Amino acid sequence: MRGGAEILKDKHIAIATFTELRKMVPLRQIEAAELMVAMNKYTTSYAKALLAATPQAQLVEADKPKHVRGLSDEQVALMERESVNLEREFRIAEKSYGTDHLDLVLTNGYLSKLLGNARVIRYLAQHHRDILTEFQKLAEMETIAA
Questions:
Q1: What is the dihedral of CA 6, 9, 13, 16, to 10 degrees?
Q2: For residue range 99-115, what is the model confidence (pLDDT) as tens digits?
């Protein structure tokens, strides 16, 4: 498993950002580094926000109470819970991305073949003009994206 510093080695990051990450246990450092890469955000303030959202048990000094300037203990606890939920949802989306992307590529390829067939175009134009219009919009969006 790669460490947080290894994940961030080719990024331009302030030393103070690493200072904030070092306050987290190694596994949490890796999670935070992966989030920074996924969000393309490497600022010290983002690292501080990740630290604030880190549960007490995942801090190097777990026995020392965490104080976040400007936030009450209740707000910090809410932020920790929301962070856990957000990370879980992010992981779920990340896992399904590959399959979803493959499905989209295959579907777009099939749609392009359909729209390349004059008989299909003629049939859709006569019987399902609304579907033809939507197919053409999708094909046009794919062309623009490529």
A1: 40
A2: 888 888 888 889 989 99
The predicted-structure confidence for 16-73, as pLDDT tens digits, reads as follows: 999 999 999 999 999 899 888 888 889 998 898 888 888 888 999 888 877 777 777 7
What integer pLDDT is reported at residue 87 of this predicted model?
Answer: 79
**Under 8 Å between Cβ of 139 and 111:** yes
pTM: 0.56
Cite the DSSP H helix spans in the chain: 4-8, 15-21, 26-39, 44-52, 73-115, 118-127, 129-145
Alpha-carbon distance of 9 to 29, in angstroms, equals: 13
Q: How far apart are CA 21 and CA 4, in angstroms?
A: 8
Asked if residue 50 lies in contact with residue 19, where contact means CB atoms within 8 angstroms, the answer is no
